[in-house]
Amino acid sequence: MDLIDLLKLYDIFNVEYIKKTIEKVRKRLEIILKDDYFKINVYFKPKKYNEDTNEVEFRPLHTASLIDQIAMVAMLQILIYDIDSYGKIVLSDLSRLLPNEFYGNRIAYNARELFKPWYEQYSKYTSKANELLNTYCETLEYKYEVKLDIEKFFPSVNPKVLYKYIMDRLPLRLSNDDRKTMEVIVKKLLFFKLNELNEVEARWYLLTEENKIDINKCKFAKGLPQGLPHSYFMANIFMLIVKDIYHEVFNGKMLFYVDDSVIFTNGTEKGLNIDEFEKCIEKINARIEQEERNIYKKFPIKYLPKGYAYNDKDFGVKVHNPKDRLGKSAYSDINSAKENSGEQYLKGLSRETSKIGFDINTTFSDDEIRTMTNRTKAVCEMLDEELKRIDNSLTNSPEEKYKVYKEKLLRYKKFFSYRNKILSYFSEGDTEKIVKNLIEDITVNGVNAKTLKDILIQFKDDILFAMFDFVLKKCEDELIKTDRLIVAIEELDKKIYGNNTKHSYISKIYLKKEFREHQEDKNKPEHSSILSSNYYESLKEKISKKCRAVTRQVQENKYKNFEKYLYLFREKNKRLYDCKQIFERFELQDVYNYGFFVIANTDELERMFLNCLYSYFFCYEIDDKFNLSKKSREPIEYSEIRILTDLRNKNFKIGDFLSNYEDYITDQFRCTADYSLLQVLDIFRVFVSDSKLIDQLIQIHKYCCDTWKNGSKYLHFYTLHNQEHAVCLIRTAIKIAHGISYFQMKKIDYFILFAACYLHDISMVTLPEMSSFYNEDNIESNRIYSDFVAELDEKRENIQLMKKQLCDYYQKIDEYFEKIIRNRHAQKSGSEIRKHSELNFIETSLREAIAQVSEAHGYGVDGIYYSKSDGEKTLINTKMIRILLRLSDLLDMSRYRISNIILNHNLENLNEESRFHWISHLITDGCDMKTVYEFKPANNTSGSDNNNLSYLRNGNIIERFEIEVRVLMSQTSKVKKKKGCNFIKKSELKIGSKMPEIIITCHKNSECENYKNDICNFLCKWFITKNNFLFEEFATLSDNLNRQDYFYTSEVNIIIKAITNTEVSEEVFDYLREYVNKH
């Protein structure tokens, strides 16, 4: 079975199996290169429901056997790559023909993948298009934006044209034999035999409505067989012809994503109107046809495969006529679009796609998933209303005025609808309920009385298959049976394809025997390692066979054994490290031989080997995960964490590892790690990625831990700001970044943020400068001295009173230094970050950035929030980092930060302020965050002068960030206040609830008016007294966010929620009441 065979290939150290596979591929290549053609299958994937014809439209997707696909890639690599003298992959002359403005299916040359990730490239394409649109809206360098849509592109490409075009552009340096080999390779990658189709399938395949189908044509694939690994490169090559013709007609700036294109142009001498635009399209199509004819006429007829029945009239790439209702070719006036359509807001949508895409892949909690579900739902509602507005506008305006804009909106709607559906399933915790809901959603005439049309419209744009994939994977992970779901998919398959299910995409992917066996066999011991894609299975077996005794040795001997093998890696030259010797020691010389080009271009095999070896020696689970777990009773050491996070990093470099190894194992790191570090390692992996920076964060964690080990001499009764506090801040910062759409940062920003979480309070441990106290200009110390001398004269004769006076003034001096440390700690922390030699491992510019961020957590709010953001122009977005650090710091309010025992033993000895804050911490259980989104457009009501304003304009989605603080006090008795609390729009106590709940809305320029109505309560006043900075900070944040140029109106609510009755003694409550009443 191809599926099982593919999974086996993931284990690249499975020598016997891979050698067998290589031999099969070689034999297949010998046959193909001599006198045969690849034979492929086509499967019809539902594309959409055509409401005009009441039929399902299909996209033909081609596939081949696993061995054939590997052979195709092997042949393609000859075309797209060259090899330098070191064995390094470089782009071939043919690949270099593809210009920078081609974003789709760019060749990768890291030996890990064939093409650069499509989602990254498509994001770059759309972002660049929106960026240029905004630029030209301002500069008017170009007047028009043109979107050209090619009709049925892949099946329309004439392989004869591509063959001749490619052969004419091969390097002249090729020998005759090499050129002949290239001729065969190109031919065999353009012509494919097709497995038999019936007449209905042939009509679907040839994309024709004719009753009489020449089924003989279907003996070979038509055009470029979409779905095969090489077809996308070939498509880009053909688009070189099209690009040049586009330039002839529309001179300007162009961007391409395969056959999709955006052109910014000044049009023709007459400008552009619908008639002129149609003439331009006709000219383009005529020129493409002429160019195709000029090329395919030179095609050697003898190279056509026997039985190939297509003629040149069956092909012909054409741009859709702009008057074609189903076509997407259109243009828009850039200045008019700016004024009327809403295109100027598309940059915000592009930013939002990038943000939501990143957030989905970096979630760490169910609350974050729910937040993103709500956000994508609100954006979908906004897009729906904007599309309705555009449709209404089309009745009064020329269609071309809005056509380009509408097409963009539909693409964004597809993006957000797809992710909203996925997220809504994610957020549903009951998997069996998910299965039940999906069955109901896909059942024709079932519980929900849906027609086939309803189902395909609901699940259009590939959402249907995303649902199947997600739910089946979730069932597999949780060992939940899928029998009923498979039956429902079978029934849907019959409804869509009728009696023609042999080439059904649904049947192939979800219903075929191999898929069912994959589902059934996952629990069988003999298949478990295969189906779990355990890349390390064979390698572990080799290492355990040779090194089993090492696991029982002491740590020092384990290191000696590891180093014995590590230092077999030797530098072969300045660019390569040779692993031949070490692979031979473990009977892996065949891996070295068949993996030579992989070894020459990436350090992945070396990384896997060393990771497996080290993990095995030191009794760790052998995988690539950062959530480290040990199978022995020995503690985890810092050295082990540093080594494993490097060895498990996908950006691993063997040269860097060898250089850093001695530092990893120095004595200062050969000690038991602080286990709170393990809570954030995976966060470092996701948000920082770079192995060097992750290692620096590990060292910073240890530095912070060591610095705070004995606490602070002058802050006995101040909550510790140690590594545990830092870990809490890091986790909170991630939640805030996911919960507020404004925050969009780069990986280097997250590194600086995380480092500052550790170091922003580091000076609190440092002893103050005593000399500052007896400085003559120190007003505060002069006052203490004067008071002391005055009292001394009165009590000189009474020894007991003098001793008491000494104690009193010792406490005052202690409080003086505590105040100095508190008030200046932000600035002093910045200074210490800059000067302490223990932090020299941090690069100077990054160290300075960390120092500046740390200093800023002590600044006033206006200096932070109303400074200009520099994220897009500079490497580091200092403003966002500063804000996230401050917010996270304020929200670390858990009772677990202080000791109840210490408080009880020292309650009477604490000064009034410290006592209040300690007690307040003890009755604060912690906080949770969530964000509520609501699409609530302003002034678009019927009859309004603004009823044609874009729904994408600023502020149409309310983003309500809610902080729920759980407290162990329920005292809501009335209290007196002489004035309202600042930065609070309103404070509302829920009436009638079993436990008190107060909702406080933050607002920059407001004052709570509850005191006027004499309805202030103790719980609210206590919380605001304790957290007065919190309200100023979030009120200023909200005000700042509402000044940003994006869709959201920011609101911040702080909810005080009592989870139990007041849990403090009368004595402790008296202290609270006294302090609150004074303030």
Molecular structure report:
This protein is 52% helix and 10% strand. A 5-stranded mixed beta sheet has the order 12-13-16-15-14. Strands 7-8-5-9 form a 4-stranded antiparallel beta sheet. A hairpin with a 4-residue loop joins strand 1 and strand 2 (55-63). It is globular, with a radius of gyration of 34 Å. The relative contact order is 0.06.
Strand line-up of the largest beta sheet = 12-13-16-15-14
Low-confidence stretches: 522-533, 941-945
For the biggest sheet, the summary is:
5 strands, mixed
Helix content: 40-55%
User: If you compute it from the alpha carbons, what radius of gyration comes out, rounded to the nearest whole angstrom?
Assistant: 34 Å
Helix and strand composition category: alpha+beta
Distance between the termini: 76 Å
Number of helices: 43
- β-strand percent reads 5-15%
Mean pLDDT: 87
Give me the count of strands. Answer: 16
Q: Overall 3D geometry?
A: globular
Primary descriptors:
single chain, 1079 residues, alpha+beta, 43 helices
SSE layout and pairings?
Elements (H helix, E strand, L loop, with lengths): L1 H8 L5 H20 L4 E12 L4 E9 L2 H15 E3 L5 E3 L26 H22 L4 E5 L4 H4 L2 H9 L8 H13 L4 E2 L4 H8 L24 H19 L2 E6 L2 E6 L8 H23 L33 E4 H8 L4 H15 L5 H29 L4 H29 L3 H12 L9 H7 L4 H15 L5 H15 L7 H7 L1 H9 L3 H7 L5 H11 L7 H12 L3 E2 L5 E2 L1 H6 L3 H6 L1 H6 L2 H14 L20 H10 L6 H11 L16 H7 L3 H17 L15 H17 L7 H13 L19 H17 L3 H37 L8 H13 L4 H5 L12 H13 L9 H7 L5 H11 L1 E12 L21 E11 L14 E8 L7 E11 L10 H9 L1 H14 L6 E11 L7 H13 L1
Parallel strand pairs: 1-6, 13-16
Antiparallel strand pairs: 1-2, 3-4, 5-8, 5-9, 7-8, 10-11, 12-13, 14-15, 15-16
Helix pairs in contact: 2-3, 4-12, 6-10, 9-10, 12-14, 13-14, 14-17, 15-17, 15-18, 18-19, 19-20, 22-27, 23-27, 28-31, 31-33, 32-33, 32-38, 33-36, 33-38, 34-35, 35-36, 36-38, 38-42, 40-43
